[in-house]
């Protein structure tokens, strides 16, 4: 299975780099030396991606960033080059169509007779001409197709490459600044008809997808904790994907979570990445930091049911979500807020009468236009939505996965303020 997946990745990466070579090297170079240098560079960059995805894991955690920074930045730049060049194919084809038709329409009417006379002269070499010379004379080199202009084609290719390069570098530059900068602090009022009047204004600081790993460490956690503590929330909810690595590697980076402050405590549910990183060790570690892990269970908060379910990916290891366990037998007159990593879990939540689900996972698409693809799988990509009568709020997350780039989907920490009807 892994071999098949790797083969598919290599095929896709190879196809994309072949297209980039064609547009950025073949169409822009006029010398063999220039084309060889460009080809070597494209091949090296193509190999960098599988090396980053696979070989970097073999390095000690402290050295993984050596490959991760160039590899993931190129992955982001590759994506935006592909998108911009694909968009520019439309004007490129239009220009080529126009240049092919233009010269043909402007060709002098008497050009054909002149060509015929020259051709006739060429086919009748003087007497005594050697056979080899006669054959050469009788077969002139083929004329270029109408509208063909090597200089114009080279100019078009270079203009297209410069435009795509400038736009892609700008997108990656802006996206990197957003990804590495502080998350937006969003204040989101949400109405729950069953909410007790005494809880009006109750604030939940919601954060997800912190993604501690080779590129995000302890300082990232410290900044998030400072921002959350600054709002003096009633409750903190961390809804999964805290880490991309083991407790041994990332325990010190997660340690600042012990400094979270909220009147009614801090809570956590697993995300899919916890199941790639030794989930049981992380559950123990997070609990030891004073953040309670809700594992298909609920707690009472001033007359509100706060429930949490495991991530869908836990099913593969016998630790999946159990909505009946978390929500069964409760008083349905009480409001219930569910913490669940993935928005798709709202379909099950709706069947159990959940009033509000708080989720992450999507990153808001992370790099537009990926948000369009995410919307095909997730009922809510970012912000507040409705799934079968259950309100679903999805934070874009405070970190990133893969490329250190967030373009069109800046990171956020959301402060949910609850109000009654």
From TrEMBL:
Residues 129-149 are annotated as: Disordered. InterPro entries: Calcineurin-like_PHP, Metallo-depent_PP-like, Metallophosphoesterase_sf. Keywords: Hydrolase, Membrane, Metal-binding, Transmembrane, Transmembrane helix. The chain crosses the membrane at residues 6-25, 37-59, 71-91, 160-180. This is Metallophosphoesterase. Signal peptide: none annotated. Residues 202-364 form the Calcineurin-like phosphoesterase domain. It comes from Dactylosporangium roseum.
């Amino acid at each position: 299975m892994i071999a098949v997946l790797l083969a598919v990745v290599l095929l896709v990466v190879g196809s994309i780099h072949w297209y980039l070579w064609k547009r950025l090297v073949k169409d822009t170079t006029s010398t063999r030396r220039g084309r060889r240098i460009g080809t070597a560079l494209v091949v090296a960059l193509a190999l960098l991606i599988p090396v980053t995805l696979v070989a970097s894991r073999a390095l000690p955690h402290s050295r993984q960033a050596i490959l991760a920074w160039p590899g993931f930045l190129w992955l982001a730049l590759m994506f935006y080059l592909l998108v911009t060049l694909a968009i520019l194919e439309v004007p490129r084809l239009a220009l080529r169509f126009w240049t092919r038709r233009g010269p043909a329409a402007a060709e002098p009417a008497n050009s054909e007779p002149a060509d015929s006379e020259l051709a006739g002269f060429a086919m009748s070499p003087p007497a005594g001409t050697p056979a080899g010379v006669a054959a050469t004379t009788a077969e002139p080199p083929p004329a270029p197709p109408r509208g063909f202009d090597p200089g114009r084609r080279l100019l078009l290719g270079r203009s297209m490459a410069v435009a795509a390069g400038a736009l892609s570098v700008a997108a990656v530059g802006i996206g990197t600044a957003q990804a590495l900068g502080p998350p937006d602090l969003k204040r989101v009022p949400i109405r729950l008809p069953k909410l007790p009047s005494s809880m009006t204004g109750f604030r939940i600081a919601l954060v997800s997808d912190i993604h501690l790993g080779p590129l995000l460490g302890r300082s990232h956690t410290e900044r998030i904790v400072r921002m959350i503590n600054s709002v003096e929330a009633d409750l903190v909810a961390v809804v999964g994907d805290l880490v991309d690595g083991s407790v041994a590697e990332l325990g010190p980076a997660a340690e600042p979570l012990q400094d979270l402050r909220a009147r009614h405590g801090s809570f956590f549910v697993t995300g899919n990445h916890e199941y790639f990183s030794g989930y049981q060790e992380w559950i123990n570690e997070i609990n030891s930091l004073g953040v309670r892990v809700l594992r298909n269970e609920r707690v009472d908060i001033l007359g509100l049911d706060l429930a949490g379910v495991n991530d869908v990916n836990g099913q593969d290891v016998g630790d999946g979500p159990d909505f009946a366990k978390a929500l069964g037998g409760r008083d349905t007159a009480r409001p219930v807020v569910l913490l669940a990593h993935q928005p798709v879990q709202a379909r099950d939540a709706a069947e159990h009468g959940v009033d509000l689900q708080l989720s992450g996972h999507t990153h808001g698409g992370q790099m537009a236009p990926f948000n369009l693809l995410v919307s095909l799988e997730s009922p809510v990509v970012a912000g507040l939505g409705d799934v079968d009568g259950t309100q679903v709020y999805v934070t874009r997350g405070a970190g990133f996965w893969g490329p250190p780039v967030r373009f069109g989907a800046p990171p956020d920490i959301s402060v949910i303020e609850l109000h009654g009807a």
